[in-house]
Amino acid sequence: MGDEMQQHSPSADVKNNDLSSRGITRRWGLTASVAPALASLFAIRSARADSSSDSTFDRVCSSKVLRIAALPGEWPYVQNDLATGEWSGAAISMAQDIAKVFDAQLAYVESTYGNSVLDLQSNKIDLAFALNPTPQRALSIGFTDPVITHPFGCLAKHGLAPKTWDDLNKPELTIVFDIGSLHETAARRYCPKANLVGFKTRDECTLALQSGRADAHIQAAMLGLSTVGKNPSLGPYYLLTNPTVALPSCLGVQREPDTRFKEVVNAWVAMNRGTGQIREWMLIGLAKFGVTRDQVPPTLTF
Fold this sequence. Notes:
Blueprint: H1 2-5, H2 14-52, H3 56-63, E1 65-70, E2 79-80, E3 87-88, H4 90-101, E4 105-110, H5 113-121, E5 128-131, H6 135-138, E6 141-143, E7 148-156, E8 174-178, H7 182-190, E9 195-199, H8 202-210, E10 216-220, H9 221-230, E11 237-239, E12 246-254, H10 260-274, H11 277-288
Parallel strand pairs: 1-4, 8-9, 8-10
Antiparallel strand pairs: 2-3, 5-12, 6-12, 7-10, 7-11, 7-12
Helix pairs in contact: 4-11
């Protein structure tokens, strides 16, 4: 900042003026030599900025492509058939229906729940499915209105049929959960008297229940029902009440000033929840995973 802020005295001698002139000439000569390169660089940056400045609404309407996060193996939401490459599941059915609104085709970007948030931030996708709107996530992405409200419950050993959290909040019972999850948060808050044991994965929790080392496995409804679909002998799945612990499951969207895309999707959510279509897609997705309709608790609403 120092050189640019200095001022030259009008009484400076000819020698100084000559040196200054030569200095300025050298500086301008250097600037002229790099000007084409800088101009090219600025043009590239400008082009990138222009391309990224399109809102999701404008981009989807013009390209006729809706990019979604595809999460292999996350039933009942998403599954990929390795033999055919075909994607299916409740989230895929929903995405296909949303794409029809824009007369668009789907583009699948393989991701995970955590990475789908990053994919929205980096403009790799337009929609992410089945995300809980946590405050941390809301700092970087937007959320639609809830698609479903996702209640919590458990799988339990045979002979134990819990209806409330208090039914599990007993010292003689061992309750398992996957470490660092909302399942752990719920277990520690509502079953503090029980013997609480955490495992790294949900599969390890399931194995503990199957082997008799656990009395109950805390899981959100869709995950619990999917576990029953894979292992029918573990059923039924029990929703727990008093209190009912439930979190909204939303679609993730890019955070941007233009809210038209989010408004369209919110209208789609409201209509399809109201008509019961979202519930139907969820039940079909569960059925593909082996969960029959009579295995879905009647008190479970979507």
